[in-house]
Write a structure and sequence with these properties.
This protein has about 120 residues and is mostly helical. The protein contains six helices and no strands. Helix 3 runs antiparallel to helix 4 and helix 4 crosses helix 5. It is globular and about 50 Å long.
Amino acid sequence: GAEGSLDLHKPALDVDLSTLLPVVVQQLILGKGRGKSFVNEQISKIRRKSEEAAKAIISETLRESFFCDQPDTDSTVDKHLSKVTEWFYALVMKKSPWTNWTNDIYDAMRCIDHLPIS
């Protein structure tokens, strides 16, 4: 039943990836040189704001951190920034297909565990 499928996705490690991985990704995306308190503050703002306002926060932070030396008129940068912003917003807000993405990692780990060693 449903309980058995939950057991399938429990970690065999002493680490809960569903808790740890989102935090790691948030730190990597938002925390460049800014620290954990800045990231926590931004995530809190993102979750409280409207979708449009939240995406503006993400986009602005990404531009400052990773594209500060690029002109604001660069359409290639804007396109990439838009895609990363959409992805990160969906991840933070746990929108499909990012509702249970860490389960996929557990599934992959199980597959690797069963590969023959040559």
